[in-house]
Write a sequence for this structure.
């Protein structure tokens, strides 16, 4: 069960805005590359890490206002997800 009550716009505006974490320079570089239209490959070691990477890059793309196509790949002993920007 969710407890809730109505509020006022003034009370909401008086609250501090949510601050986002510092920008990670590695992720900044990855997202810049994807945003420019260049696909990137992100290596992972476990299914859990794959899921985390996929959610993270999807969320970061959404914050920048675009969508990504994520596909699984494997080359030799390396597993990776390939990420490309979706054309609008």
């Amino acid at each position: 069960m969710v407890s809730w009550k109505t509020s006022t716009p003034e009370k909401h505006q008086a609250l501090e805005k949510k601050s986002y974490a510092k920008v990670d320079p590695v992720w900044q570089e990855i997202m810049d590359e994807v945003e420019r239209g260049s696909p990137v490959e992100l290596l992972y070691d476990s299914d859990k890490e794959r899921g985390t990477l996929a959610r993270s890059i999807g969320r970061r793309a959404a914050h920048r206002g675009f969508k990504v196509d994520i596909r699984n790949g494997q080359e030799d002993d390396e597993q990776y997800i390939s990420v490309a920007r979706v054309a609008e």
Q: What stands out?
A: The radius of gyration is 18 Å. Helices lie at 9-14, 25-35, 47-64.
